[in-house]
Design a protein that fits this description.
mainly alpha; BCAA_transport_permease; 3% strand; transmembrane helix; transport; globular; 293 residues; transmembrane
Length: 293
């Protein structure tokens, strides 16, 4: 393999990992919400997009990336809290179709608001000056500093989630809730508070990802449905309620997205949805999902 081909290969791997880490931030919240509340929250992609636009607006007004990040995370966390308290809570006991229609309707409402307020032109969040430019990795490989940081942040958050999930009381409550929410209620845990906190936390993660992805993916109407579609694939492949599955699934989907678009763009959707179809056929619960039958 020549030097140019090797550089391109490494670049596509890094592209896949950086995109995969963004997807992990969204899908990790989505899989816990789905596993704990039995609600497939299709509004999650809209929180990603809304967070990106909030960050763009704050940065344009102040010029500060860190302030834009904070406002986006807090704003979408509050929005997710309102959605859960006023809307989701009414449908926890009922038809799943109603839950899907509610979250889909909210996604369209937020998407139309974004289009009305910010317009249809793509916008870009500017990364901090220290993270602009590229870094030489040796062997003729040069890669943007900012995307390398995204990979590092994603890995660090995944490690933090692992510690919280496996070694803290909060993690034990969430794991128990994913397996049997009724048992958790019987033990005296205020499950409503847990639901609200998880949903708000998922919204914060989505906005965090939307802000971090702004400098290289941009923000534009329609991105919300692209993100939620890939996140649902990750949840299905990894298994509902599994953070390990979400992490590994995000890496796989990110790499498939990068390589398929680079080498055979005509079959890019087949490359991503093909594994999901195979897994559903042979292991319907996903790679790391628990069988609740």
């Amino acid at each position: 393999m020549g030097g140019g081909a090797a550089s391109q290969l490494v670049a596509q791997i890094l592209n896949g990992l950086s995109f995969g880490m963004l997807l992990f931030l969204v899908s990790s919240g989505l899989t816990v919400i789905f596993g704990l509340m039995r609600v497939l929250s299709l509004v999650h992609g809209s929180l990603y997009l809304f967070g990106g636009y909030l960050a763009f607006t704050v940065q344009r007004a102040t010029g500060k990336f860190h302030l834009a990040l904070i406002v986006a995370v807090l704003g979408c966390s509050l929005l997710a809290w309102v959605i859960e308290r006023l809307l989701h809570r009414q449908l926890y006991v009922g038809l799943q179709l109603n839950q899907v229609l509610l979250t889909m309707g909210l996604a369209f409402v937020i998407g139309d608001f974004v289009l009305w307020y910010w317009g249809g032109n793509p916008q870009t969040v500017t990364p901090p000056e220290i993270l602009r430019g590229s870094l030489s990795l040796g062997f003729g490989i040069v890669y943007p500093r900012y995307r390398l940081l995204i990979i590092g942040i994603g890995l660090a958050i995944a490690a933090l989630f692992h510690l919280v999930w496996d070694r803290t009381r909060l993690g034990a409550i969430l794991r128990a809730g994913v397996d049997d929410a009724e048992m958790l209620r019987g033990l005296g845990v205020r499950i409503g508070i847990v639901f609200t906190a998880v949903f708000a936390g998922g919204g914060a993660l989505a906005a965090f990802a939307g802000t971090l992805g702004g400098p290289f993916l941009g923000v534009y109407p329609g991105l919300d449905f692209e993100v939620i579609l890939l996140s649902v694939v990750i949840v299905v492949v990894g298994g509902v309620g599994s953070l390990t599955g979400a992490f590994l699934g995000s890496i796989v989907i990110g790499l498939l997205d990068a390589f398929s678009k680079a080498y055979f763009p005509v079959f890019s959707y087949f490359a991503m949805f093909g594994p999901m179809i195979l897994i559903l056929a042979f292991k319907p619960t996903g790679l790391f999902g628990a069988d609740r039958t």
